[in-house]
Amino acid sequence: MPATEPIRIGKDTKEELKKLKVHPRETYDDVVKRLIEEYRRRGHEKD
Questions:
Q1: I need a surface site. Which of 20, 28, 30, 43 has the fewest CB within 10 A?
Q2: Which of 31, 37, 34 is nearest to 16 (CA)?
Q3: Which residues contact 45 (CB under 8 A, 6 or more apart)?
Q4: DSSP state, residue 23
Q5: Structure confidence by residue, pLDDT tens digits, 13-24
Q6: Distance CA 47, CA 25 (A)
Q7: Cβ pair 31, 17 in contact under 8 A
Q8: Angle, CA 14 vertex, CA 34 and CA 40 arms, to 5°
Q9: How far is CA 21 from the centre of its chain?
Q10: pTM for the whole structure
């Protein structure tokens, strides 16, 4: 398992991330990575 780093997010943000899970056991890290991937696919990636 890769090293992890704690981050602080608001309760409301956590609840929104929870709603975006595709499976109850999906990690928040996986949710955030999926969101980043989608953002990049839509052409928002900076060089």
A1: 43
A2: 31
A3: 39
A4: S
A5: 999 999 999 999
A6: 33
A7: yes
A8: 25
A9: 9
A10: 0.80
Q: Which two tokens stand for residue 2?
A: 């890769």
Calculate the alpha carbon distances from 36 to 42, 43, 44 in Å: 10, 11, 10
CB atoms within 10 A of CB 32: 14
Tokens describing residue 16: 């929104």
**Distance between CA atoms of residues 3 and 43, nearest Å:** 29
Listed by start position, the domains of the chain span 11-44
Structure tokens at 40: 């990049």
Model pLDDT, residue 46? 67
Q: pLDDT class for 47, splitting at 50, 70, 90?
A: low
Tokens of 20: 């975006």
